[in-house]
Amino acid sequence: MAIFYGGDYNPEQWPEEVWPEDVELMRRAGVNLATVGVFSWARIQPEEGVFDFDWLDRVLDLLHAGGVAVDLATATASTPPWATYKYPDILTTTREGAIRWPGSRQHYAPTSPDYRRLASELVSALVDRYKDHPAVVMWHINNELGCHTTYDYSDQAAVAFRSWLVRRYGDIGSLNAAWGTTFWSQRYTGFEQIVPPRLTPAAVNPTQQLDFRRFSSDMLLELLRMEKRIIRDAGATQPITTNMMGAFPNADYWSWADELDVISDDSYPDPRDPHSFRTAAFGRDLMRSLKPGTPWILMEQAPNQVNWRPNNAVKAPGQMAAMSMQAVGRGADGVLFFQWRQAARGSEKFHSAMLPHAGPSTRTYREVAELGAALRTLGDLPAPGRDASVAIVLDWNCHWALDQPNHPARFNYLAQVQGWHAAFHELNIQVDIVRSTGPFDGYDVVVAPSLYLMSDASPLVQFVASGGCLFTTAYTDVADENDGFLPGGFTQRLGEALGLTVTDFAGVQGTEASYATNLRGEILREEIVLSGAEVLETFTDGTPALTRHPFGQGEAWHLATMATEADRVSLAARLATHRGITPVMADLPPNVEACARSGLITLINHNPTPVKLGDDELGPYEYRLSRANVSPPQA
Ligand code: GAL
User: Which residues does ligand 1 sit against, CB inside 6 Å?
Assistant: First the structure.
């Protein structure tokens, strides 16, 4: 099957006479998939109970005749004005109690019964009409679920939150115990007394906040399941996807992945940031890891500049293709853009498109067409296999517990996880992303940065016992799944494997966590009591900074601080050397990336300048793909 190539197509923004030109220019650019209908609700349903599909019939027929398949969106991402006028409960409320009004997009409350009813009617009507249309090859649920409005603090959200809490805890006594409500006189005598964590005079109960974030993620998941059920109950058989947003902080994508046939991602790295290709690589590896062994789709990226940064750089010639091939190299079977034709009106009119406002005689369209041609030559690509020996743990519950005040030091958990990924990426060591509960089999090294909160540590302990190498960093194994301490101190669950106990935490600044060698920790450092671990590095006062402990058939390392960016690279290299892990390609120049996809090696120069590879040279943003039986250029 050819790789999918195309983008969001919003024909309702244009007179119908323009559509044939669209299809012709799509054909010339090698487009074979268009995502249609993402924001079309108001056009499809001009009023409650009235659907107008004639125009969409013509769009789908035209695309089909032109050889362009359709990823049909369910159009539920933005309710029309008639809906919010008639049913104002669709709107969301901020923490402060202000209403988020219509006039923009994605203003619906995930818990609103009216939103759910209207969305269900729309999806049913769409699926009934198009489930057998030959153009439709995929269903696209909503759009970036949770973007803009994950958190709703309205009264109806409060009702849904209470039901969710009843399901989780059963009785109010269990909730009181889990939330620790003896503190600050917070004890509840009935679920009806509970509100979402609205604006409070001082810090809100941390478990209330954590549960509200879990609940809010689950409400989005309910929407996903609701639409999926309608699609399947109607008998539609095409694969179902929804476009994710990398390591989106507000939704536990692990719980979404099982619901989806195809994982897809939206990715907008800043072309001006020379390191954004590393963050993008993290997103690509995450998407591949969400459903191991299956390809995913890059659903949205910008063909050139976006409109929503304060200052929007254009992509350098070749940069868009390089980033597209990064996705392919890391497991994507589709490269799509937001959007096909540049909007002439509305707040995204300065966002680039595959077909710019200035027409096809533009660098953007030329590069889009060149990439379309290049992708066609790739033919069938292997499914991503187990190419990584290293896995990094990512846990959204941890992020939600840590993204709060009142810790020894505030830090961004997701940035720590991405930072460790970036370190291995810089070394061109292939990495998968894993859940905190695994599975870990097949990996040699598992890195768990600041795994503060854990529900079940036994898979990690088992991983070490059966021969794996675990590497943890400060602030790991601190709290139970409800963000409370376990009786008896910290590191209750991993301490035996790590050969130590953590006894206290100190926030640090400047050089307060320097090692005796030239390494330097940051953010916080721990006080440790050893129970078998050997000390590999000490802080300047002689206390342990880095330890290693043989346990069972394996070993567990612990860093009693957070590493700086540079130190993460040297520690990752040390770990790799120790375990005999090799990069996809060694000794590449800085900012040259190599990744493996089963037998396919992708090499990309992310520098704006040429680089030497032995006698060979890679031009600015040049990429090369080679099959395993063809040797890649030697560094
Ligand atoms: C995405 C969204 C698209 C478009 C794009 C612009 O978040 O799904 O509809 O707005 O951003 O970069």
Answer: 143-144, 147, 266, 268, 300, 302, 306, 338, 348, 351
**3-state SS, residue 605:** strand
**Residue 1: pLDDT band by 50, 70, 90 thresholds?**
low
- Cα(363) to ligand 1 centroid in Å equals 22
Number of Cβ within a 10 Å radius of residue 631: 9
* Strands of the 534-538 sheet, one edge to the other: 431-434, 390-393, 445-448, 469-473, 554-559, 544-551, 534-538
Distance 1 CA to ligand 1 centre (A): 27
How far apart (Å, rounded) are the C-alpha atoms in residues 181 and 193?
13
Q: What is the pTM of this model?
A: 0.97
Tell me the three state secondary structure of residue 424: helix
Active site residue 47: no
- Least reliable range by pLDDT among 17-26, 273-282, 508-517, 536-545: 508-517
Task: Output the six-digit token pair for 512.
Answer: 């307060």
Q: Distance from the CA of 302 to the center of ligand 1, in angstroms?
A: 9
The answer, yes or no, to whether residue 187 has pLDDT greater than 60, is: yes
Question: What are the pLDDT digits (tens) for 599-635?
Answer: 899 999 999 999 999 899 999 999 999 986 544 444 4
Residue 144 annotated among the catalytic residues of the structure: yes
Question: How far apart are the two ends of the chain, measured CA to CA in Å?
Answer: 32
Choice among 12, 21, 121, 144 that is catalytic: 144
